[in-house]
UniProtKB/TrEMBL annotation:
Coiled coil: none annotated. The active site is at E381. Residues 138-415 form the Peptidase M14 domain. Belongs to the peptidase M14 family. The gene is Cpa6. Keywords: Carboxypeptidase, Disulfide bond, Hydrolase, Metal-binding, Metalloprotease, Protease, Signal, Zinc. This is Carboxypeptidase A6 isoform X2. It comes from the Eukaryota. The keyword Lipoprotein does not apply. One of its GO terms (molecular function) is carboxypeptidase activity. Residues 1-30 form the signal peptide. The keyword Signal applies. Its cofactor is Zn(2+). The lineage of its organism: Eukaryota, Metazoa, Chordata, Craniata, Vertebrata.
Length: 420
């Protein structure tokens, strides 16, 4: 793996081995992430009144706990489903406070360390790293994903190209896969990115699944052949490469990038709140993708961004309550996509404008793409609705990706027709 430049981290190499040892020997001495989540909990609460919101925000600011949902404390208001990861040492203070304030809560995850260890599927430890038998039903480290991209390009050069569109804050290349039969004729394109938020591991797993399905079924599935003949897919399996790497080596629940913010003395920026008109203070990852999309804006007809968790398919606007000009076409595409998704395993997704379906938030990639002329801009919030949260077990990668694939194919085929 020397072609990637960065030496493989010892911790990242150690983790799968650690799990394997743990499962085979049942020794109990070997815990990923240094056992740092032992005794941590994830709880869910829904403040019912303004007083409860105020009280919760107060204790949140005092304890600085990790919010899983919504993505920022400012979005917590009456009726907001709020999931909080509480470290063991803050658990008693917070739970006593909530009981005192009569704020009802339920425990979603009793012991987070156990949940982290259960995320990985025991049966599939074999083949975790072999490229010829690349296993799409496990989570892969950044190094594995990058070698896999290189391998696809080597083995299927007529359909796959790999290139870098820039470098991350820590200097890692930002790789893109281009899928589609090469043609000199004008082709429309679909952009797909996964892993803007580091801890949402199911996103990168889906991007890899999509590439595999596309290449596997190109010859046998007429719909896929049509898609790859008439379109290019630009796929960025890991957008926030530094954050994703960090979520493997240090903190499973890291969300942001890894840039240094001297003004606030903290690390990282939310790469989905950083899409602005002026780029002077932007993250290098965001700027690289925005530059690429602007250069290809005549071709790129759809922008799809993959997140977790909520089971939603969102479209603009996110930053204001207003109806987009091509609402009819976008809504029908979304409606059909969630219907197709549900046909696989009965999983229900909500869909609609992000401002109404989720909450008002500004500076995200979907709104930016739409404002920059990409008529179909969607954000997927994949499984689940909180049972496992960011720790969706590997055994659920296959059903999640299979159903999501149906939705993405549906949206893509919709592009190739003229919208009624
Ligand atoms: Zn996200």
């Amino acid at each position: 793996m020397k072609f990637l430049g960065k030496p493989r981290s010892h911790t990242a190499a150690f983790l799968p081995l650690c799990w394997l040892l743990l499962k085979t020997l049942q020794s109990g001495h070997c815990h990923p992430y240094g056992n740092r989540y032992a005794g941590d909990k994830v709880i869910r609460l829904t403040p019912r009144t303004e007083e409860e919101v105020f009280a919760f925000k107060n204790i949140y600011r005092r304890l600085q706990v990790d919010l899983w949902q919504p993505s920022s404390i400012s979005y917590v208001s009456e009726g907001t489903v709020t999931d909080v990861h509480i470290p063991q040492n803050a658990s008693r203070t917070l739970l006593t406070f909530l009981q005192g304030a009569r704020i009802q809560y339920t425990v979603l995850i009793e012991d987070l360390q156990k949940a982290v260890e259960n995320e990985n599927n025991l049966q599939t430890q074999r083949n975790r790293r072999s490229l010829s038998e690349y296993n799409y039903e496990v989570y892969h480290s950044l190094e594995d994903i990058q070698s896999w991209m290189y391998h696809l390009n080597q083995t299927q050069p007529s359909l796959v190209q790999v290139f870098s569109i820039g470098r991350s804050y820590e200097g890692r290349p930002l790789f893109i896969l281009q899928l589609g039969r090469k043609s000199r004729a004008y082709k429309k394109a679909v952009w797909i990115d996964c892993g803007i938020h580091a801890r949402e591991w199911i996103g990168p797993a889906f991007c890899q699944w999509f590439a595999r399905e596309a290449l596997l079924t190109y010859k046998t599935d007429p719909a896929m052949r049509k898609m790859l003949n008439h379109l290019y897919f630009y796929i960025m399996p890991v957008f926030n490469v530094d954050g994703y790497h960090f979520s493997w080596t240090h903190d499973r629940f890291w969300r942001k990038t890894r840039s240094r913010n001297s003004r606030f003395h903290c690390r990282g920026v939310d790469a989905n709140r950083n899409w602005k008109v002026k780029w002077c203070e932007s993250e290098p990852e965001v700027k690289a993708v925005a530059d690429f999309l602007r250069q290809h804006r005549k071709h790129v007809r759809a922008y799809l961004s993959f997140h977790a968790y909520a089971q939603m398919l969102l479209y603009p606007y996110s930053y204001k309550h207003a109806t987009i000009p091509n609402f009819g076409c976008v809504e029908i595409a979304a409606h059909k996509a969630v219907k197709a998704l549900r046909s696989a395993h009965g999983i229900r997704y909500r869909h609609g404008p992000a401002s109404q379906t989720l909450y008002i938030s500004s500076g995200n990639s979907m709104d930016w793409a739409y404002k920059n002329g990409i008529p179909y801009a969607f954000a997927f919030e994949l499984r689940d609705t909180g049972q496992f949260g960011f720790l969706l077990p590997e055994m659920l990668i296959k059903p999640t990706c299979t159903e999501t694939m149906l939705a993405v194919k549906n949206i893509t085929l919709h592009l190739l027709k003229k919208c009624p």
